[in-house]
Amino acid sequence: MFRHGLLAFGLLAAVMFACVVGLGSEPQIPMVIGCAIAGAIAMYLGNTWEEVLDGMLQGILDAMEAVLILMCIGMLVGTWILSGTVPTLIYYGLSVISPQLFLPVAFLGTLLVGIVLGSWGAAGTIGIAFIGIAAALDIPLGMAAGAIIAGAYVSEIASPLTDGPVLCAAVANVGVFNMCKKFLPIVIVACLISVGLYFFIGSALGTGMTDAGASQVSELLDALSQSYAIGPLTLIPLVVMIACIVAQVPAIPSFLLGVVLAVIEAVLLQGADLGTAIAAANTGVVSETGFEVLDTLFSTGGIEEMLPTISIVILVMAYVGILQHAGLMQSLIEPITSKLKSFGSLATTTVASGAVFNVLLPDQYPAIALSCKMYGDAFEKRRTPGDVWSNIVNSSAGITSVLVPWNTCSIYMVTILGVSCIEYLPFAFFCYLYPILVALIALFFGKRLGWAPEPGSKEREADAAVAAPTA
Question: What's the whole-model pTM score?
Answer without folding.
Answer: 0.72
